Amino acid sequence: MSRRGKRLGRLLVTVRAMSGRTYAAGTPVELVGTGSAVDGWVGGEWVPLRWWEFTETSDPEPVATEPGLDR
Q1: 3-class DSSP assignment, residue 52
Q2: How far apart are CA 18 and CA 46, in angstroms?
Q3: Are the C-beta atoms of 29 and 62 separated by less than 8 Å?
C-alpha cells in the first residue's frame, strides 16, 4: 500500500514500537507526515516518532524488513 508523502529515514536513538518491540539507532524507517511528530514504519509496523528520534535520508537501501518476511 502506497502512503502519501513517504520518505526514507534512519533512527537516531533506540525507539519502542506500539507492539513493545524496540528498534536500534541506525534502523531504516519509512516516514509519513511532517511536524514535530511523524509516523514511522519499520517492516510494516507503526512506530510513532518525535523529531529528535530520526533523520531523513536519500539512502536507496530498502526500508527495514525481517529476513524471510519479504518473500
Answers
A1: helix
A2: 7
A3: no
Domain residue spans of the chain: 7-57
d(C-alpha 6, C-alpha 9), whole Å: 10
C-alpha cell at 57: 535520508
Is the pLDDT at 32 greater than 50? The verdict is yes
Residues of 8-40 as b/e, b for ≥16 C-beta within 10 angstroms? bbbbeeebebeeeeebeeebbbbbbbeeeebbb
Q: What angle do CA 21, 26, 29 make, to 5 degrees?
A: 65
Query: What is residue 63's predicted lDDT score, i.e. its pLDDT?
Result: 52
pLDDT digits over 8-26, tens only? Answer: 999 999 999 999 999 999 9
